[in-house]
Amino acid sequence: MTPQIRGAQLARILGHWHALPGRRRSPDYSALADAVRGLLADGRLALGVRLPAERELAETLGISRTTVSAAYRQLRDTGHARSRRGSGTWTALPAGHKMANFGLWTPADDLDVIDLGCAALAAPPQLVHAARDAAEDLPRHLTGAGYHPTGIGELRDAIAALYTARGLPTSAEQIMVTNGTQHALDLVIRLVLPPGGPALVESPTYPNALAALTARRARIITHGVSPDDPGWDDELLLATLRQTRPRLAYLIPEFHNPTGRLMPTALRERLAATAAQTGTDLVVDESFVELALDGTTMPPPVALFDRSSRVVSIGGMSKPYWGGLRIGWVRASAPQVQRLAAARVGVDMASPVLEQLVAVRLLAEAETIVGERRAQLAEQRDVLVGELARLLPQWRVVAPSGGVCLWAELDGPISSALSRAAEAIGVRLAPGPRFGLDGTLERFLRLPFTLPAAELVEAVGRIASVRYDLDRGNRMRWPEPAVIA
Fold first, then answer.
1. Angstrom distance (rounded) from CA 219 to CA 226
2. Is the residue at 97 inside a domain?
3. pLDDT tens digits for 151-167?
4. Could you point out which of 13, 319, 333, 372 has its C-alpha 20 to 30 Å from the C-alpha of 77?
5. Contact 70, 77 (CB under 8 A)
6. What is the rounded distance in angstroms from the CA atom of residue 93 to the CA atom of residue 284?
7. Domain presence at residue 447
């Protein structure tokens, strides 16, 4: 079913559309069309959504139907809407405006490159000792075949204990260890989403999740997440679920990647209940759940409100510990875990035993390691926010209360151009369109604060110089961009 936005819902996200810059120099219909185009460009209004009927929107906004009709006509003329007589009007993008290259991040050999394309920390010092201890413990596992499709028992126990400590009672039978969080997501998609099935994601969202869904030929539906708190529009998100009834919804409620927003408790509860009604499996990515900053009180896990085994939680060691340690997991009902283990045989047999033993040792020191990570990230976040305010004050940044990145709103739709220009002076960036569909989000840029403070300061200085060069119209020879995510 085609998703539809009601008049009241559109009015809410339009906000003060009549007070936008340039409002006095343009008629009402043009200002309304500009506001809708802005929502599309920022990803807050999804593509392929049926707009409210002209009469309904006119009554909601308190304007004439003629004004709405003229605004819709202008949107059609610019390619931002399509209509069919008697059927309604749908959001769209002009012909030729399509962006669907998600790609993978690859490290640079040039030490002068400051890489802000990857939101991940370097390994903690405790990793070396954990690896040594794990190697000494390995012999007791060598008498068996080494294949553990759901993971070794002691690691599953340790992961289950993490959920129990968060108020969600969990047994080892509800845990399956995977080769990273992306592997966990891919397995769940293979199990619950038929080829070509409908899937709901946030916009913006994690690029490699889009890649995994695209590989499954999923029909992707989006819900816009705002950089401002609370991020999600409760009524619009739940209405989209009810209207489209997707087989799978991939969401990042804890310090959403890339906006950094934290989903409120009330929405978590309503989300789980609505998913049960619509027959939707919720895949909840908790990659950043341990990285709360500033003493932020964490809401309960979404799975706590699950009454019908519709919530599958995924997480891993990459963000709080190290990306090179390929340990992730799935938390689901015990029967679902067994089905995932059976599906896994077609992908791989099991996760490496030695890496699982390393993970056990690191989780045993979680309080110390993660505590140090939080302090480090909070300091680096504040440095990055301060430098952006000093050198690029026209950019708008909402500092997140957790996670590892900022979602900066730029002073124009220049994200891709800025990223390509920055590459030439040794800064790798992740432009906004990488986190959405069809070329939207050009006004945004993801900036992780995972690098040392000195590198962040240098990076912002270089970015600022390139930004001002773009204003002066300097002609630059840009190389082909590196593929990032």
1. 23
2. no
3. 999 999 999 999 999 99
4. 13
5. no
6. 29
7. yes
